[in-house]
Amino acid sequence: MTHDEPAGILADPGAILRAAGAALTKLDPRRMIRSPVMFTIEVGAALITVLALARLAGQPGAEHPAFIAAVAVGLWATVLFANFAEAMAEGRGRAQADALRKTRSDTLAKRLTAPRREAATEAVPSTQLRAGDHVLIEAGDIVPGDGEVIDGVASVDESAITGESAPVIRESGGDRNTVTGGTRLLSDWLVIRITANPGESFLDRMISMVEGAKRQKTPNEIALDILLAGLTLVFLVVTATLLPFSMHAVASAGRGEPLGLAVLAALFVCLAPTTIGGLLPAIGIAGIDRMVRANVLATSGRAVEAAGDVDVLLLDKTGTITLGNRQAASFLPATGVTERELAEAAQLSSLADETPEGRSIVILAKERHGLRGRDVEALGATFIPFTAQTRTSGVDLDGRQIRKGARDTIQKAVIAAGGAMPAEVNAICDDVAKAGATPLVVIDGTRVLGVIELKDVVKGGIAERFKELRAMGIRTVMITGDNPLTAAAIAAEAGVDDFLAEATPEAKLAMIRRYQQEGHLVAMTGDGTNDAPALAQADVAVAMNSGTQAAKEAGNMVDLDSNPTKLLEIVAVGKQLLMTRGSLTTFSLANDVSKYFAIVPAAFGGIYPQLGALDIMRLHSPTTAVLAAVAFNALVIVGLVPMALKGVRYRPLPAAVLLRQNLLVWGLGGLLLPFPCIKLLDLLLAACGVP
Amino acid sequence: MMTGALLEVAAILMATALAAIAIAPWLVAVFPMEHAPDGGPDGDRRLDRWLEAITRPVLRAAGAWPAKEMTATEYGAALLLFHAAGFVLLLVLLRCQAILPWNPDGLPAVPWLIAINTAASFVTNTNWQSYAGETTLSPWSQALGLTVQNFVSAASGLCVLAVLVRGLVRRDSPTVGSFWRDLVRATVGFLLPLAILLGLLLASQGVVQSFATAIDVPLVDGALAGQKATRRIVTGPVASQVAIKQLGTNGGGYFNANGAHPFENPTPLSNLLEIAAMLVIPVAGCLAFGRWVGDRRQGRALLAAMAVLFLPFLALIVRFETRPNPSFAAEVDQSPSADHEGGPLEGKEVRFGPAASALFAISTTATSCGAVNALHDSFSPLGGLVAMWMMQLGEVVFGGVGTGLAGLIAYTLVAVFVAGLMVGRSPEYLGKKIEAREMKMGMIVLLVPPIVTLLGTAAASVLPAEAAAASNPGPHGFSELLYAFSSAGNNNGSAFGGLSATSPFWTLALAAAMLVSRLLTMLPLVAIGGSLAAKRTVAESPGTLPTHTPLFVLLVAGAVILVGALSFVPALALGPIAEALQPLSIAEGPP
User: Fold this and answer.
1) Are A223 and B417 a contacting pair at CB < 8 A?
2) Contacts of A505 (CB under 8 A, 6+ apart)
3) Residue at B373 is within a domain
4) Chain A residues 575-634 within an 8 A CB cutoff of chain B
5) What ipTM describes this predicted complex?
6) Do the domain assignments include residue B472?
7) What is the number of structural domains in chain B?
């Protein structure tokens, strides 16, 4: 999947042409009625066009036919520009969708008559597979649909979905038992049970989401639509009543003409919140699209919005807050043992140890004491790997029996061999544990050499990010399986607000419920089947793509990169979506003030010449004043398309600061910007010879 | 003398503020909110027991005891039923005036059109008067018809506010309180004692309160040729009605001249009391709001938003009314002197002067009172514009008792919606999410009054016979039409003057405007209360939009101004603005 910059698409002439074409087809009133604001403008445009044609055909009337035609053009331009914005947003989504769709190429699936590998197969087009069918996939096959592995282990290339080229293992049972349609088996075989009917698969849903085809309006969009429709209605009444008002004024002033329909339509299009009304669909589609670019697929626009509202983040310690695995941080020798001696023993015991902890011990020994790695085989040593039974690992070499392991296990082994655990080593272990690290005791036979301190390494810069989040009012909660002591130490180092130690799925669920009870909105990530209840309960639930089908079903977003840190980006995208909507609404409404100064003196100047005092922009003529206002109103939509697609600048700041900044930029800016723009357009029109 | 006038204005505002601070805890106790998030006592417990003690017998007598908690739909239905019953009862009473007691002058039944208009007017707390009180209504009709509605229409406004506040305070609650209990507590436990107190104070200033009939007095100078030697002076239960018409933001005077009549408003002190009485409950409502929601800053912020909208325009209208009218600059000395504070006096009472008249005018239009102590028609064009615009802002700058604050909260919800989005959160106010339903109802509250006002004015201006009801030509005549519908469409009830609104069109159109505006704002407000009460409360955090900061106050005030300005600027341009900008007619006329 590509990550091209929005600017790339905006500069692509092909995309612009396609969007322009789509803007025309979107004029279909049945589509337009979804946006009440733009629908009324379209009706107005049609009406004024008919009027212009009638006047050109010789019907009598007060307004100049060319003026009426110019207003009609302005109205159509407003509608078309709004459609263009939506089409641009959809165009970007479609590029993503096409990439996704390629992976859904029709393949022949091997349907099994029974859920066993040995069962007979029949070739069935993948589009005809139903949920519950069993399919055999062998090395080189394309996975024909979303499914759950019920037998077999295989490596799968999921780069078509995730962009990640390293193959992943999929196997039955456990948390890695799902496969996604469109991915490719690299080795071995799998028997899967199909979990989605054609057209309902994960991929299908994502395609329709990014294309915006089946886009449902989100609750927030509906509420905003009501606001905009209400304003449109009142402005319709304001402009419509101006006809009788002006008739009364003409009668009592004894001069001038009642306002013509074209001027009224022009005033209406200028007052109606067309800027936000026209850009609203584009903003919504672009928000989902930004999620897709972050390699996150949201199942609904509602989920994207909710991400902006989240104020509690439940973050898994491993991978999000810490680098992943614990690493050796220091060697703490017992009395009578040099640190080098301990390091050497520790290194020997870990040379063949392929666990990340083991490798980190070798690295630390090399860094601190210059101890080079040696070939265990060449030394004639026997490596004792870690097993769940012995819970120790080590090496037998030249009669030495070097072991390392957790304190209680080693203690038992030492006592069993007739030795004793020195009190001082116990004290070291306690200190290490208190600091939130894990002690590994190293022994040589019954001689206790000392302790290796294994520490969780907190990711660089993560504390700063949490600080930013706190400033925005978002609490971070670390979830870990560690004991409370270890958890508290890491929580303090990373700067999270709270932690849940020895977390069980039940404890997670209870914690989410408690936060929600207190009125918080909770986001979490999860991948395992046992995460599913908590994911279903959370307001924003991001399932890892590597996770189980159950987790994906329970969540409302899927992170294709399976990166738990992504939650922070998701929150940012959600907030940016809402901010863009709010800022453009403010801008749109603030714009109206200046248009009164352009149109009111122009419209009523003939009746009450003294109202010319309100013409503070000193516009050329009533005709240019009205046309300049209409032109500005249409052009500002085009001007703001990049804004709508990219979203307003987002920075993690407290609400009070954000409000001040956005009000200043979009409120005050929206109030002032039209004055010079309308004046400029007026000069331009006058220069073009418009009377 | 200007300094004296300004001191007078400052003194009145100060007195209002002190009185509001004094009665706010009382108002809090009238509608206890069943919680105390700040840990303080939830209203005054003793006051609460006392209120309950006087409410119980009334409800028991009405068969409504024990008071049952209602859903928003039930509450709205009760409110509607109560309005309908009040309307029918008042209509019957006015139509049967001739056969009812306490009709010393033997006044006939009120004509149908006027009776309908009056019933609609008083039931809706508007008090537009298409009749002259002293020559149309008997003391019985005034006291038992109008004054009763003055009390209960104000009380129903308070009920709507109570529902809205309960919506913000309660969580996951299917109910919003009991209308009958709220109504009785507000009327008997709050408005009645306040009105008795104010009535006594007004009577001390010489406002008439009498069971006597009209008095025929001989003229001092004797009779002019062909005229009677006596004049009839109407008296009646005036102080009791004036007290509640001011306090309840009703505004319907006992006499045709309203607050300009010496029996209704005899002294500068009574003038002070009457201005303060209009403002005191709306101001106290803001202070009570802060206590109800457990965060006094929230109440102060809403009060500040009202003040931001009120004080600059107060300064403007005082300026407009105390500066000399340039049309007569040469002929009439309008400069300040020892016994005149300056400015034109046409249509104003000399015992009040231009500044106090301007303060009365903006107070009566900012609140939805509508009592007048001067002829707004005679104000300068821009002075008249200020008075008119205060109504067109939807009666949320103080506004009606209860409804004004409730209306401002509706504006706040809309402002919060846009501002909340701007900070990247789906919007919430005091922990309650603002969603489609609140938005829909809020927009109805905001938009019905301007739409009713504009459509009514449009109808009047295209019907030549009806437009002729305006006594002035040109833009001023249009102002007279616009003012009438602004007054009725926002439940203010004040008259600009200069309009003979007695034709069937005017009486019925204004009655319809009053009913539609009142009911289509109150019922959606109840609906908002119901839908908010059913929601859970979202926790506050630094990411929450603060709704008590100066910036937010300006935002709410800005929203009110924006909707008000965008709805009415073109109409105002054809009325007061065109009039103010027109060249001096005196220059064109004969010397």
Assistant:
1) yes
2) A528, A530, A531, A533, A534
3) no
4) 575-576, 578-579, 581-583, 585-586, 589-590, 592-593, 596, 600, 603-604, 607-608, 610-611, 613-614
5) 0.93
6) yes
7) 1
